[in-house]
Queue: 2 jobs
Job 1
Amino acid sequence: MNDQAITDLAFNVFGQPIVVRASAQPATWHTRLIDLMGPYNAPAPAHASEIIGVEQVADATPWHVTYDKYTNMLVDEDHLVQHLEWRIFTIGVLQSVAALSVHAGAATRAGGALLLPGLSGTGKTTLSLALASQGWQVLTDDVSLLDVVADEIIVQPCARCCHLAPDALGQLMAKHIALNGPFGDLPEYFRPAELGQPGPVRWIVAPSYAPDAELGLTRLTQAETAALLIGAGLRQTSRTLREQWAAAIKLACQAPGYRLSFPSLNAGLAALAEVTGEPLP
Amino acid sequence: MVANIPERPQRRANVEMQVMPDGSALLYDPRTDQGHVLTALGALVWDMCDGSMSGEAISAECAALLPQQPDTASIVHALLASFQDLHLLQTAEGTDAV
């Protein structure tokens, strides 16, 4: 790529400066990515150590994305924008200096946070966002960065777009959840209209949505809770696994852990209200 | 996997046990960076894997300590088999399992 024909799109994710380097020729995907990344757009850093290269070639898979020796080939601009957003956040999370980072939704109320760890498809996004209908403020729907502050583990807000399937979006609209978007010209990418402030984790509930299952809420031992957190962990390269285990153990001692299987959104919210000591909605 | 449980199970020296305030426990293996959840009985069995007792003796000791726990012998055997499968025990020759 000719030096005079490039442009850098710069982002800062969890303190990590990341650059997407592409042809300077104006392209719609530049605008779409900037829109999708929202508050994570940043001025170009003086020195960027994390550079993602994008090239357009005459090929059946015209978008080539290169990072750290590997090249991904994408078939169209939608996939390109989605892939870049995922790649940027992955770099940011893996290199973050948080004590622990997990796949988890989170919300806060009255200074205490509820953490919902789980992998994709467990219903944590819909539950996290729907908690706003119960007086909670959403912190994140998918990536929770946990830090130790005053000897307590707190969860940080994350403004990454939520990926909402049409049925989940319909359920949230029915509960009048305020969302902004869609962003990036991608019909399933939204952000909560408002994010809460960091708060100490007071409850840990691992949700599992299964429409044919009965509602089930099981208290976990502290050892099971720590193992659950590591199982949902994002394996930061900046932290050894021993350090991540230590943080998970500390958090498991700080907040009680539960497993929740729920057949519907309302049943899940009712169970969370029970766990957090609030009247059933 | 069928575990070949040593005659006198002995835990690997560098596997750490973290007992949580609620009595549950975790074993952390620094060689694999993996943690393993233990019940209170599992923690007790692990503690007894010091190379001085046979599996049967560990079973009998656990049954005596926990008379209300049903089927102690099969639970203890399963725990020892799982320790062995996870390479948490020393080999019969007294060296760490690979």
Note: Residues 16-85 of chain B form one domain.
Job 2
Amino acid sequence: MNADMAPFVLSVQLAAMTLVVLLVIGLPLAWWLAMTKSPYKPIIEAINALPLVLPPTVLGFYLLVFLGPQGWAGQTWTALFGQPLTFTFTGLVVASCIYSLPFVIQPLQGAFERLDRRMVEASLTLGASWPRTFWRVVLPQARHGLLTACVLGFAHTVGEFGVVLMVGGNIPGETQVLSIAIYEHVEALDYAAAGSMSMMLVVLSFLCLLPLYTKSRKRRRLLGEVAA
Amino acid sequence: MFFVWIALAFLLSWGDSADAADQTQIRVAVASNFIAPMQVLAKAFEAETSVRVLVSAGSTGKLYAQISNGAPFDVFLAANAREPGRLIKQSLGVAHTRFTYARGRLALWCRDAPTSDAARGCLNGSVSRLAIANPRLAPYGQAAQSVLAALRPSTPIVTGENISQAFQLVWSGNVAVGFVALSQLKSRSDTQGAYWLVPANLHDPIDQQAVLLRRAADNAAAQNFLRYLQSDAARAVIENFGYDVPLPQQAKAQ
């Protein structure tokens, strides 16, 4: 593979994998957060928001220790799969999931909280199965929140730097994602190469964000027609 | 569009996954200030031995933290002598493999100076601010601080996180004068003004040391690379980038 394309491809792969994992974890978690009356809800919400507070390099350092051979998460992983977690692509996915979690949870939770619950209950009492209700009643209503969660989770992972630098170790072809490759060019004072790579990152981000805003305009128009 | 990408990424992720621990490639962790010469050296070594060199750059402190936490590097080229020494003490580095591969030279870069002498004068002139690297984090910052202590100018100081940030501050025109590395000035042709090469006796030597890491203790390719780094050809490359290279006898530490 072309050496200049490798970081680009890695970034897209990382963001896609992270997003899939986050949706698998995030959909049930956001659902629970939206529906629960548990007294622990604020605690879980606060923990979920923590990755927003810590500076990425600091978070990256703690993840490095926590996921590394001396940390219990790293030791458990190595015992289960026989491979270390840090400085691998898998490790980057795990770290990115922690880092991008709030960006997926919060739009989903918001969408679920705004659901018309009477419709969900009606669907269930009329005999529709829970998966069918989710597919036909919940998802169409939460569509916009789901799209926001996808785009934010994906874009945030593409743009992350501090965490992947610490946990990934900047290994070409394995953990050297686009943002790190740009940083390396800047450190090497090769501002021209850094500039062209940044251009790639900007274009990638733009293509990521475009569908979000195209969709939301359509939706607004739709709502406007209904209201009128 | 967006979901097409995700599908695409999944297809792509079934591709290759590089395997470690073979002797056809080595992984070198290099202090980011040395990345440009390292790329030249890696190419030359690859051509000579057909061993692939994977270069990972970072700050010496971050790379040290990563190696302590199991990073799969074979060779570490630090920007100082302290971290390689620490690694040997912790048996993460192989004893007696440590040597100084490059000695950094500090330069005072002044954007408005026409000559080297004028650049020297910038220190006492009417400059509004002076850029240095963080003395607590960067060896070049420490050296700059020693020079400032010796010459006592009263210019307010702006601190970059590392030497490349100090360079950026001056290069971008935000600060007119700064202590940077000679190697940086040599690796770009678009530097305005002139610089004064700070006499090496005004600060402790900026020794950049290399060490073989534990996982590569029996890795012939990695040992070969360290030998190559001390060869005349490699020394010429390093000197060309604006570093001094001490003679092998002097370079040996411990």
Note: The two ends of chain A are 54 Å apart (CA to CA).
